[in-house]
């Protein structure tokens, strides 16, 4: 029973990592660059929801504020690409990496200035409710996290595989020039994917803030989500979820069976080993070019 | 505008392009030596800090600016340098003159070990791997508590050379001169590496791995050598930083420091030694500027001085974004543009320094 409990909480944590990793993968899939501020996007989305919902701030109904936060973050993601990242079009990946790291710093500062640096928790209807199956206590929040994550992954997977827009997004990353020839508005596609990843980050943030408390440094969770994305394979949506689940499951078990101090290094250790052994992840997207 | 008439192949790799240039740099060096007679002890402390950051920045510059490999984890190698330097002194009773180069060497070996598996990676994968190493190092320092002191930290003794002690508070001017001498040696070594075949191999790898390979450069080896040299220099800077900070813990060399190093070289100007210095001047002066502005604003509005937590890192982030968007060549690049404008006077054109843009292709197809 004990182990089952660990597995469930690990799965729920893993789903949050997976959701952040989904944001990385979305942007990587369409623009071939990585948004190092994705964790901070998540934090910002959570704080916007919190600002609308919590009684201390505006006290709006939970679902309404969720919808508003998602809309705001979507627009914010679109504008960010339009105003900032479009200037980097055609420049090296490393420059984009540094830019997004700096962006993370700014977002952290803004969130800290508006909502303070104290940890706060979101007053959501799914927090703190427990369901009991025999001896197993399941948090309502954990079940929600798992369901939403799986649904979202499936939805995005089919979006990329089946819809015209999704295929256009993939095309614009695989070969920009060819995408232009096919009449794909590459720059607008990039802005759209940033909007989409802002939305995914907000959903992750809402779920994360319902599970526990949130503060401006919560964005550093993004580093663990990197581990998830790399393990699953950058560029694969189910891979991101798989990687997130692996990291999420390893953590509680390491914390339980390893001496203190060793447990928190496990996600990074797996990440480094993965990068050495199989840098393109479990569900890799590498195709060998046929000559 | 001066046109250098080259009469031999050696002219291409001379330390100074022409004698006037050598004269100006010597003047600058003389000014740096005489600086303690001109300004207060507090500013000398800040100048020492600028030099130390510049050494660390030069380490990262060699990797990012010269070889084109991104590293988000250079604070880890600063930590290796700082800790090993102090441990050699305390646990093995080594003098500073021996422990200091050894600390650099240790950081270099650590860098080479890290480079062995990671040089196969490139672009963002390398960035992520080094990021993970930076995070791991903090935890490893705690795990190795018996020798590193863990969370409680470790106390760096005064630097002692032939019975003469250097202390940040006791004799800041002498410490400044010591750091200046080390900076000079590092710059000289850096310049010489760039002039050597190794340095040109670095540039080849940075500009195009495929063409470097075609020219007979061993890409994997070159990257590893770059990592090792870069980490050696950063480790030396870290060792000095340890002495300057006197006490340091696992949190002294955290991820923020790695990003700070990146900020220093990007703001200063990638790929130039000048850049490391300009960047570290900006980085050290910024907190001073912020507190001055804060006091000024406070006295203007009459509300007393306001403290906003996290303001510094927010402003750093904003500056970094501004530079990447509007001046990717950094402060030194801006200076070059201004100088070229006046040298060529009516003939300077807007796009002279324009970088080539390229259409992106996926890395996922090999």
Automatic annotation (TrEMBL), chain A:
Main localization category: membrane
Alphabetized InterPro entries for the sequence: ABC_transp_permease (IPR001851), BCAA_transport_permease (IPR052157)
Residue spans crossing the bilayer: 6-28, 35-54, 60-82, 94-115, 143-160, 192-214, 226-253, 265-283
Superkingdom in the source lineage: Bacteria
Keywords recorded for this protein, A-Z: Amino-acid transport, Cell membrane, Membrane, Transmembrane, Transmembrane helix, Transport
Localization (cell): Cell membrane
Keyword Kinase applies: no
Membrane topology summary: Multi-pass membrane protein
Family statement drawn from the similarity comment of this UniProt entry: Belongs to the binding-protein-dependent transport system permease family. LivHM subfamily.
Protein name in the entry: Branched-chain amino acid ABC transporter permease
From TrEMBL, chain B:
Organism for this UniProt entry: Hoeflea poritis
Domain of life: Bacteria
Subcellular location: Cell membrane
Protein name: Branched-chain amino acid ABC transporter permease
Membrane topology classification: Multi-pass membrane protein
Chief site of localization: membrane
Keywords of the record: Cell membrane, Membrane, Transmembrane, Transmembrane helix
Keyword tRNA processing carried by entry: no
Transmembrane segments: 21-38, 44-64, 71-90, 96-116, 123-144, 175-193, 225-246, 252-270, 277-294, 314-332
């Amino acid at each position: 029973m004990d182990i089952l409990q660990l597995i469930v909480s690990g799965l729920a944590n893993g789903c949050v990592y997976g959701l952040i990793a989904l944001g990385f993968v979305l942007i990587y899939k369409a623009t071939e660059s990585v948004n190092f501020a994705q964790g901070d996007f998540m934090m910002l989305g959570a704080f916007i929801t919190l600002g609308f919902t919590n009684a201390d701030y505006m006290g709006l109904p939970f679902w309404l504020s969720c919808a508003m936060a998602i809309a705001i973050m979507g627009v914010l993601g679109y504008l960010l690409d339009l105003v900032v990242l479009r200037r980097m079009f055609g420049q090296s990946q490393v420059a984009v990496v540094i830019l997004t790291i700096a962006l993370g710093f700014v977002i952290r500062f803004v969130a800290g200035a508006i909502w303070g640096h104290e940890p706060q928790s979101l007053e959501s209807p799914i927090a703190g409710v427990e369901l009991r199956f025999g001896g197993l206590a399941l948090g309502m929040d954990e079940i929600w996290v798992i369901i939403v994550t799986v649904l979202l992954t499936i939805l995005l997977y089919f979006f990329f595989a089946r819809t015209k827009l999704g295929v256009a997004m993939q095309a614009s990353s695989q070969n920009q020039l060819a995408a232009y020839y096919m009449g794909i508005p590459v720059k607008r596609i990039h802005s759209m994917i940033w909007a989409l990843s802002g939305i995914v980050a907000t959903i992750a943030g809402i779920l994360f803030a319902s599970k526990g408390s949130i503060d401006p440094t919560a964005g550093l969770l993004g580093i663990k989500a990197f581990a998830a994305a790399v393990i699953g394979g950058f560029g694969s949506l189910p891979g991101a979820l798989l990687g997130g689940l692996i990291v999420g499951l390893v953590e509680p078990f390491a914390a339980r069976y390893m001496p203190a101090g060793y447990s928190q290094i496990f996600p990074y250790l797996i990440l480094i080993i993965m990068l050495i052994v199989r840098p393109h992840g479990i569900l890799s997207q590498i195709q060998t070019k046929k000559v | 505008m001066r046109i250098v008439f080259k009469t031999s192949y050696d002219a291409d790799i001379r330390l100074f392009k022409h004698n006037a240039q050598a004269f100006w740099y010597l003047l600058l060096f003389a000014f740096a030596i005489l600086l303690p007679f001109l300004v207060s002890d507090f500013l000398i402390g800040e100048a020492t800090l600028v030099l130390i950051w510049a050494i660390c920045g030069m380490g990262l510059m060699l990797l990012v600016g010269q070889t084109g490999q991104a590293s988000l984890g250079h604070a880890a190698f600063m930590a290796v340098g700082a800790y090993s330097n102090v441990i050699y002194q305390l646990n093995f009773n080594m003098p500073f003159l021996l422990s200091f180069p050894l600390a650099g060497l240790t950081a270099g070996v650590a860098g080479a070990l890290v480079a062995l598996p990671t040089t196969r990676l490139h672009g963002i994968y390398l960035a992520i791997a080094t990021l993970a190493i930076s995070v791991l190092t903090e935890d490893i320092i705690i795990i190795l508590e018996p020798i590193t002191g863990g969370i409680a930290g470790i106390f760096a003794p005064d630097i002692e050379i032939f019975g003469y002690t250097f202390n940040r508070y006791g004799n800041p001017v002498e410490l400044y001169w010591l750091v200046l001498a080390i900076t000079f040696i590092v710059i000289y070594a850096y310049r010489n590496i760039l002039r050597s075949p190794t340095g040109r191999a670095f540039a080849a790898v940075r500009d195009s791995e495929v063409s470097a390979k075609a020219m007979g450069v061993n890409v994997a080896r070159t990257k590893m050598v770059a990592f090792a040299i870069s980490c050696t220099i950063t480790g030396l800077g870290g060792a000095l930083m340890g002495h300057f900070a006197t006490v340091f813990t696992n949190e002294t060399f955290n991820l923020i420091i790695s990003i700070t190093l990146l900020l220093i070289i990007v703001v200063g100007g990638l790929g130039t030694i000048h850049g490391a210095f300009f960047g570290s001047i900006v980085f050290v002066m910024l907190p001073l500027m912020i507190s001055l502005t804060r006091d000024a604003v406070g006295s203007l509005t009459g509300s007393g001085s306001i403290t906003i937590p996290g303001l510094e890192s927010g402003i750093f982030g904003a500056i970094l974004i501004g530079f990447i968007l509007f001046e990717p060549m950094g402060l030194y690049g801006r200076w070059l543009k201004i100088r070229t404008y006046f040298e060529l006077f009516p003939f300077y054109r807007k796009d002279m320094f324009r970088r080539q843009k390229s259409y992106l292709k996926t890395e996922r197809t090999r």
